[in-house]
Amino acid sequence: MDERVNGFSLRIIGMFRRDSIQPLDCVFCCSEHNTHMSLAPATVSPHSDHFGFPYCTTDVMCQIPQNCNATHVTLVTRSDEVKGFNQIWLPIRNKKTNRKEENKPQFDFTVCVSSLFGDYNNVLQFAQTLEVYRLLGVNRVVIYKTSCGPDLERLLQSYSQEGFVELVPWPIDRYLNPSPGWLFSDHGGDVHYFGQLTTLNECIYRSMDRSRYVLLNDIDEIIMPYQHSDLKGLMDMLQQKHPNTGVFLIENHIFPEKHFEPSRKFNLPQWKGVPGVNILEHIYREDPDRNIYNPRKIILQPKMVEQTSVHEALKYFGESYKVPLDVCRIIHVRVALRGSLKLEQLNVDKRLWDFQEKLISKTDEALKRAGLL
User: Does the keyword Glycosyltransferase apply (predicted)?
Assistant: First the structure.
């Protein structure tokens, strides 16, 4: 349920082929025993960002009829209505049980990680990243998984059993030819980056009533406060200064994995056999090229966002704010973006070292739980 847009009470998030969208109706099951069905016209709203791919994230909006206590919904074309309803029924989530009472969210911070696919097996960086987020006050990490490497699978299952990670199966490759890239003209395929835009939007709505803030970033990115010890301190300050803002844009900074901290003091013996990058060893930060577009990632209040893309919200209530880089930036340890820069042209940034003692201990514990240490 989503009653924030006038005239509608239900939103279905899907993927539609852009050149063949048909008029649709919502069919509601109005009791738990399937004894009564009700029909309502649907408004189909493709998202404006699709990076040129044939399929795009699409919202289908309907108004639940007044005399219907709806539990499930399905979509039909006009021709389906003549044939009869042989459909997949979707349970209606985020139902409002008490309109007068706004319950306190279960979580302060949720991280949404979209589109884990291929044989990605960067175990050490992933464990370190999750533990940094835990130290920063994140309560839940939602991961949409198509596939991954065997060691990372063990780690994910361990975190999932513990409850910190919520694994959402995302078998998109059974239904479409998902692209491993972001631009149709370069990478081909049916849909952008294994359906990343759809999973990010789904995660916002999944978190709508249970999380005060949602962080949208990749699996190898850490949204890091630089003037506060945790995310709560950061957001309390930002929200006080910008009370009508629901979208906070954070600048991405690359820490090239080819440059190592010279003393190698974090080249720890227990991690030698663990696949992946050790983020504590990479302290050299690129300055973004200010002459080109620099994509940001997002911290948002889910209740103030209607649609999002990867680097900006598309539809939202309230304002958007670009957070200064001295307040917060993304630590992104990966291959160099500006590979021509020499080491002396990079900035030394040891912010991660502020967490070193707890981070090493917590990472060891996580790897041991998963049987990887």
Answer: yes
